[in-house]
């Protein structure tokens, strides 16, 4: 994307991209300018602080942050910027994403992270939620989102189940 990014997509490891690409695909589909970065809370804390400090000034309207394990990334970003942070828990350990979900959703009162589902559904929904946020002030995007939802509705209305399947 050449336009200045409105949405930042960050993740704790390159390995998280298999999941986080779901958010990228949705933003691409809607033509929303975005950027993708690897920023690790525990391995690159200085970069995390730099990214969060610059986010508002760079015009980011939301940050989608995915991480696995003891997932500090979304919460630490939210602690350092008032740009809304959408957290995506990733199944990266023996706990299958429950660790990450609880780390992200259980933010103490005062510093919220909007927490999505574990994995691919959460990543795609984070993209859609970011779009819905932008759509509150962008009528063209709002129309696209309404049409997108209508297409999903029509898809279900067209489904038929044969009793003998
Ligand atoms: C977290 O640790 C990352 O978000 C990733 O989900 C997990 C494992 O990282 P790698 O060892 O795969 O780089 O920080």
TrEMBL record:
According to UniProt, the reaction catalysed is:
5-carboxyamino-1-(5-phospho-D-ribosyl)imidazole + H(+) = 5-amino-1-(5-phospho-D-ribosyl)imidazole-4-carboxylate
Per UniProt, residues of the PurE domain are 5-156
Keywords linked to the UniProt accession: Isomerase, Lyase, Purine biosynthesis
EC number(s) from the headed UniProt entry: 5.4.99.18
Involved pathway(s): Purine metabolism; IMP biosynthesis via de novo pathway; 5-amino-1-(5-phospho-D-ribosyl)imidazole-4-carboxylate from 5-amino-1-(5-phospho-D-ribosyl)imidazole (N5-CAIR route): step 2/2
Q: Where does substrate bind?
A: 13, 16, 43
In terms of domain of life, where is this protein from? Bacteria
Q: Name one GO molecular function term.
A: lyase activity
Signal peptide span: none
Per its UniProt record, what InterPro entries does this chain match?
PurE_ClassI, PurE_dom, PurE_prokaryotes
The enzyme's main class, written as a single word, is isomerase
- Biological processes, Gene Ontology terms: 'de novo' IMP biosynthetic process
Q: Which family does it belong to?
A: Belongs to the AIR carboxylase family. Class I subfamily.
PANTHER family for the chain? PHOSPHORIBOSYLAMINOIMIDAZOLE CARBOXYLASE, PHOSPHORIBOSYLAMINOIMIDAZOLE CARBOXYLASE CATALYTIC SUBUNIT
- Do you know which NCBIfam families this protein is assigned to? purE
Q: What job does the chain carry out?
A: Catalyzes the conversion of N5-carboxyaminoimidazole ribonucleotide (N5-CAIR) to 4-carboxy-5-aminoimidazole ribonucleotide (CAIR).
Q: Which HAMAP family match?
A: PurE_classI (MF_01929)
**This protein's name:** N5-carboxyaminoimidazole ribonucleotide mutase
Say which species the protein is native to.
Answer: Edaphobacter paludis
């Amino acid at each position: 994307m050449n336009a200045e990014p409105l949405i930042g997509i960050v993740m704790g490891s390159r390995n998280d991209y298999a999941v986080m690409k779901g958010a990228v695909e949705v933003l691409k589909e809607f033509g929303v300018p975005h950027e993708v970065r690897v920023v690790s809370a525990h391995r690159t804390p200085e970069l995390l602080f730099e990214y969060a400090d610059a986010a508002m000034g760079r015009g980011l309207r939301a940050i989608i942050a995915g991480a696995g394990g003891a997932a500090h990334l979304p919460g630490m970003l939210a602690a350092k910027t008032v740009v809304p942070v959408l957290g995506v828990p990733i199944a990266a350990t023996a706990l299958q994403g429950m660790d990450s979900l609880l780390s992200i959703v259980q933010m103490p009162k005062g510093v919220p992270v909007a927490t999505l589902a574990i994995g691919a559904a959460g990543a795609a929904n984070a993209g859609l939620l970011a779009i819905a946020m932008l759509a509150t002030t962008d009528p063209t995007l709002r129309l696209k989102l309404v049409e997108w939802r209508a297409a999903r509705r029509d898809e279900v209305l067209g489904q038929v189940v044969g009793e003998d399947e």
